[in-house]
Amino acid sequence: MTSPVNYTLTDEIGVITIDNPPVNALSHAVRQGLMDALDLADKDDSRAILIICTGRTFIAGADISEFGKPMQQPMLPAIVNRIEATAKPVVAAIHGTALGGGFEVALSTHYRCAVASARVGLPEVKLGLLPGAGGTQRTPRLAGIEAALELMTSGAPIAAAKAQVLGLVDKIIDGDLEEGAIAWVRELLAADARPRRTSEQAVPEHEAGVFDGARKLLGQKARGQIAPQAIVDCVEAAATLPFEDGLKVERENFLKLMSGDQSAALRHFFFAERQAARVDGLADDTPTRPIESVGIIGGGTMGGGIAMSFANAGIPVTLIEINDDALGRGLSIIDRNYAGSVKRGKLSDGKAVACRALISGSTDYASLAEVDLVIEAVFEDPDLKKNIFEKLDGVCKSGAILATNTSYQDVDAIAAVTSRPEDVVGMHFFSPAHIMKLLEVVRGNRTADDVLATCMQLAKRIRKVPVVSGVCYGFIGNRMLQPYGQQSQLLLLEGATPEQVDGAMENWGMAMGPLRVFDLAGLDVGYKARQALSDDEKGEPATYRVPDLLVEAGRLGQKSGAGFYTYDDNRRLTPDPVVHEVIKNAAAELNIERREISDEEIVNRLIGALVDEGRKILEEGIAQRSGDIDVVYVYGYGFPAWRGGPMYYADSASL
Ligand code: 3H9
User: Fold this and answer.
1) In a domain? residue 122
2) Which of 161, 184, 185, 384 is the most buried (most CB within 10 A)?
3) Stretch 614-627: mean pLDDT, rounded?
4) pTM of the prediction?
């Protein structure tokens, strides 16, 4: 078998080239190949060694698919230590993304160069791990404690230019990387550059209390997660212990995390997310339609957010509203959102201006005649939606994709009003659409394969995570939310308070408890929807009695300053005895006996409700696979990724 690592000696420079597509992960064969190449380089006439990769990226990390299986020698920590100990200068040449163990390989070399478009990072925390090949010890020595903590606990990669400022990269190469890197190695040799070992460097000065401060902050920001805290322990070890002892602390912590539940869950989630992008029965080479321009109907919060998602990816958007006033309002919300993104440092001023310039407005459907995709994002009125699709059928060019952003309605019924149901699909974004990553792609009975393939590909282009759903009321996410929400109402009537229900779920890891979510969304939304239903359709009165009473008392949620809680002007909540009374009275009226309810019961019943519905969704073939449901809940509903998603959790906890 040929090795994925190649070694050549040219004019006194030994070049180690890694070629292990798709991302040059450090599989066993790569690790062995690196050791073999280092053996050759040790013995030959090379005066310096260059490590470089082919394909789209430098090494993107350890091979995650090998985790959880017996590991084969040589192990990465031994390899990086060997690289650093090499007697000849070793140089890393980075392009694409140098991540995790890949960046640790680079950190163990003596000099690092990168193309300007390269990004480097230590994302292990996203897999419930920490950099386990010296990263926790070398990064603080090079970049300082604060920057190292930020890099490792956020897991977010940084651009080459920033890495250079931090001392993690020495030189930015313009033009061809290999040529530029070899020229630089020659310069280094001409200047008699010697191996420069990071392990021999002292950790820069740092503020007293930096570690306790980080632990406290992460206790809030990364509540429930153990890897970020372990990273702080390792960096503290780097600051206080000799290098070798720091490495031991790192190894111990790494192995503990690797065998723990959180990392197993996050690794499941990593692969579930990538699997979700695949559609069963759709060949990888299914043709796609070119999407160079998009129309959006409806300039409300949703339509505006969707418009921004496309504009941010460089795709021009025409936003349609019913009149100039509504259009002006819609565009000004977009302006405000861009200003907010600039203020929060998410976009540069220049980029925001360029993106905003890609969004134009119109009140005339004829402006959509040439667009490649239209997304309808008006409110949930099935007749209005059908009416819009009839109009689109009349004006849009042949081959244009017609999508609805409906959260609940029957995509097949909407498609049926057009003469081209095969071009109709659901694209269900989550609010705020320019920020939330989830996109449910709803496949109608007659949606064409190339339409589906185009939407999946397009999702990636606009930086969304797509999950395919079949047609049913609420699709995957909102359908599961219904029994979850209903169960929260039963818990209130049976004896829990809103703050107990929310507290139990938030302590368990949900970003927000169900009653706070209801208050945020507005209690009047569900109330209005129920008014249109028969008693039978509404279901068990206990599942909606309390919110009905609250709405009738003028408590519509955050927007009215009161719902399940009371809110001050800054939308800070306080529990409200009036609500406790409403709940007690409703329980008495419905003959429900109240009792002590434990936090454990709250979590089990709520997650159980989600999972039961998830199982039905799987059985009916609405979701392709249980991992897809996990992706929906983590990216769309604040489910903790470190618990793997509801379906993974149910399996692992034998629910
Ligand atoms: C680590 O390094 C631990 C060390 O500190 C200590 C060791 C002792 N392994 O995402 P994509 C596959 S922990 C195996 O769609 P993109 C991926 O599954 C690791 N496979 O592409 C997919 O396969 P498929 C730290 C991997 O262009 C294909 O590659 N590193 C790995 O959107 C394409 O992936 C990370 O956490 C891997 N490490 O994004 C980096 N990475 O086609 C994780 C990818 O069969 N990776 N695959 O579905 C990423 O963040 C992105 O994949 C990357 C490319 C940015 C590299």
Assistant:
1) yes
2) 185
3) 97
4) 0.93
